[in-house]
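Example with several molecule types.
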Amino acid sequence: MTQATDCTLAELMIVACSEAWRGDGEILASGITTVPRLGASLAKLTHSPELLMTDSETFLVSEPVPLGPRGDYVAKFEGYMSFDRVFECVWGGKRHAMIGPTQIDRFGQSNLSCIGGDYAKPKSAVLGVRGLPGNNINHANSYFVPNHGPRVFVANEVDMVSGPGYNPARFGPGMKNDFIDLRVIVTDLCVLDFKGPEHAIRVKSLHPGVSFEQVQAATGFPLLKADDMGETPMPTAAQLEIIRRLDPHNMRGMVIKNNPPAIRPAA
Amino acid sequence: MNTPLNKQMSTADVVARIKSGMTVGIGGWGPRRKPMALVRELLRSNVKDLTIVAYGGPEVGMLCAAGKVKKLIYGFVTMDAIPLEPYYRKSREAGALELLELDEGMFEWGLRAAGMRLPFLPTRCGLGTDIIKHNPSLKMIQSPYADGEVLLAMPALNLDVALLHVDVADKLGNTLNTGNDPLFDHLFARAAEACYVCTEKLEDKFALTADEARFNYFERYLVKGVVHAPGGGHPTYCGKNYGWDMDHLKKYNTSAAEEGGWEKYCDEFIRCTEEEYLAKNGGIERISKLRTPIF
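Resulting structure tokens for the full complex:
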């Protein structure tokens, strides 16, 4: 395998995202927004061909569809996945989604509803809880954070817990929370996992040129280091070729501010 | 041809049946398949204090901007390509709305319970979240079986009125939604005391092939009125008929940042007839050429 030397941080993150689905087997891989979607697509085209994917609209496809206008490309449909069917899939637990919440806390709880102030009169209204409550309580989930900082990784609990996490205090007797299955968080600085004691968040790998201290300073709660904490792998030439084919309009170039290179220049 | 079952109405006829304080479900999803011709007529009316139940798109923002919404029952409000709905945000951030903010699946469960005339349906969705904290009216229920699991009892979302947009209807109230995804419109129809549809095409009486009839998702006994409104889903995405109108949505979005922007938007696009509305958007000729989005 040839590691690329000339690629962007977004491309490195796409490869890191793709690893989230490794070994998942025959489930629906839902990468929401550009980088997670390219990650899921890359996973299906490389290490995990058994994954199910949609055209990001209504149909299951046997081959990931390129992003945006497709020219001559004809989607290869293999089935149907209306919103109604997606919910049935969610409730059956046969899905691993990766989404980008507005806030994440040390329990892995996520927020997509509103920020600051009172719930009744927030400083900033976002989208609403969307499908996060149902996703997190039912199937595997990972997160994507293009702007790792303390405003995303908050010190206390998120302002409006939309996606539940590993916070036992929020579950009363008899409530079942053992389908909660948080996997990784891919950020512009590092990859985090939930494999510390009681699902504490650990740094699994640092992106090239990033230090643990830098990540900790950008995070509102204490982080652990994975025993085998290493450097996030650079994409291979073959992976880059696939990514560029899947994203002919370079939508990935607009995800991270100024579209920086994968290897950060020394500060 | 008038049959005894002729349910054809005008948008004004429909809105005349919507009273202040009613609970109104609006079909579609975000910027998809919204019954905008009926929403625009509602915006022109004096009706207020509505409880709006929707997978929200620009129609929710418009109804908020017009001060029609007392309570919002929703999972999100978004225009997808423009993720944050500006007028919803203004109302939300002003503390102007009563809320029942729900997981998308809880929302579906609420509609299903209503359609089945059940008081609730049990679900795990919502457990462990602040939905419970902010809505103490939501109750838990314990499984009566050996597992004894405690679940959230999602209450029925009973609607006074459901407003939907379909591709083809006949005057008896039969409808077809030929889009690739029927969304949850059939559940809105079942959850409502009265369902009204606006339709791109209106026929006197369907004579369908079996393949065409597959696109009928709910029965005509649910439909109380049918409005012929070509382009009635504009500026939202309407299946195979037309895509969302990004130019229009951008203009709408920008208006929210301008002083008196909503009034200007209303002057241009609401305080007029549907015919004038279509003409201001390039006519059905332009609208029918709006490309469906490719994701």
